[in-house]
Amino acid sequence: MKNSVTSEVKSIVKELGLKWLHAYSDNYPKNRVGVKLVDCYLTLEQEKIVKNKMEEKGFICSFIRRNVNGYQGCNGTRFCFHNRI
Question: What ranges in the chain are assigned the alpha helix state H?
Answer without folding.
Answer: 2-15, 44-56
